[in-house]
Amino acid sequence: MEPSSLQYALTEEERKAFNETGYLILENVLSPEQVAALTKEVDHIFDTKVKAGHDTTKALFHPNFIPDHKLFLDLLDYEKVLPKVWGIMGWNIYLYHAHMIVTPPSGAQQNDKTFGWHQDSGRMNIEMESEPRPRMSLKVAYFLSDISEPGRGNFWIVPNSHLKNTMVRPEDGNGQLEGAIPVCVKPGTAVFFDRRLWHAASPNWSDITRKVLFYGYGYRWIRTKDDMTVQELYPKCDPIQRQLLGDGINCNGYYTPTDEEVPLKVWLKENAPEQVTR
């Protein structure tokens, strides 16, 4: 990681927006060339899945995609994004969850059935007793398709809902949560969101295919959510990338790490000590 990445550090304005709303939208994080190259690899994976029997009218949820191509690995510690992630969560982090979603046109008529609204992390939202529950993780979604208009399989969110443990759903199964909006963005946009933010996928009623990459960063003591097979990448990675892929020396080091186990902390102490607060 180069010190030049610090120019993309989280600003106080971004921190305030994320803490208050639960999300942050950054346009043009990926260049058109990056979008094109990533789209090519996503299309290849989707075509392979279709040949294996995937229904082309159904969304493809493909976890553990980081080992599929170096371009996906390159986003793990992307200089325009990782400084904002550690700015929110600190240095004891890793990629605990990653998935690619490709949503082709559904061919269905548009309707107002209630989406599958949820907070991330499953049982974490049942078994933690606090109000509100702790953040624990966040996701960065890289959008490769033009979803600047509603109806294109947009990701929906309820701004400011990350501090609410429950939300009232429509009783008749029609309509969305109060305050819900579609996220309408151009290709190359990155959307950061707190895992507690109430959100949902929506059907793709358009004639374009929606493609997005999700990178989930959590604390190193959280178990992986995917059956991640990233260990084979360790020899190709620098120390910070290895940390971000879950490498460690022993189990206790995830809870009480030495500097050897968290090279991101060491790098920050050398290059931006003001960002190492504890």
From TrEMBL:
<keyword id="KW-0560">Oxidoreductase</keyword>
<protein>
    <submittedName>
        <fullName>Phytanoyl-CoA dioxygenase family protein</fullName>
    </submittedName>
</protein>
<dbReference type="Pfam" id="PF05721">
    <property type="entry name" value="PhyH"/>
</dbReference>
<dbReference type="InterPro" id="IPR008775">
    <property type="entry name" value="Phytyl_CoA_dOase-like"/>
</dbReference>
<keyword id="KW-0223">Dioxygenase</keyword>
<dbReference type="GO" id="GO:0051213">
    <property type="term" value="F:dioxygenase activity"/>
</dbReference>
